[in-house]
Fold:
Amino acid sequence: MATKRELEGQLAVVVGFEDPQAALEQYPTPPALAAHVIHLADLHDDIEGRTVLDLGAGTGMLTLGAALRGPARVIAVELDGGPLATAVENRRRVGTRTPIHWLQADATQLPLSIPEPVTVVMNPPFGAQDGQAGADRGFLSTVASVASVSYSVHNAGSKEFIEAFAADNGGEVTHAFSAAFAVDNQFEHHDEERREIDTEVYRIEWDN
Ligand code: SAH
Structure:
């Protein structure tokens, strides 16, 4: 297995959002965090030979990270066509032969059924924008219906919500860690040029 650092290097070429939409919470996952999540998933045998589903795939950071670790296929679901077009270009930059299905769709209303249990990786909208609190709940409902295991990034302070949601929907949190990452000042309502977002990553096993 390649190292986490090697994966981070391979993901350094992935381009982020050209015209980020605040309402969709388009924050790219930095390569270091993406590599951390995917490497951890690989160590748990959750990537190789599996179907991996990336919900809210953006410009493909987690999709491509997973694709580099030998899954059977990756299905990337993203609502916004612009980032998906960038993701297809990113695939060329990264250079992987893994089959990737790019799907422009609402991740909370998944328009496909997947016969085999899947590994979900996702950095969904957190609901940090006004009036969108709990936006990750809809994504987690999809996860609960299709995943045997999931890795998801949430905002800091999500532990109680995640554990309760998992318990109510046939899931169990097996691992958790916190990670801070910097995002550029891409939306007008941010005052500083760069700011840190405190996040938490959860591995959850599901009854599917
Ligand atoms: N996973 C990417 C992007 C994270 S930002 C990365 O790790 O870099 C969250 C992404 O979710 C954005 O690309 C946004 O457009 C997408 N999104 C928001 N609501 C969505 C929905 N209902 N269905 C699918 N994608 C959605």
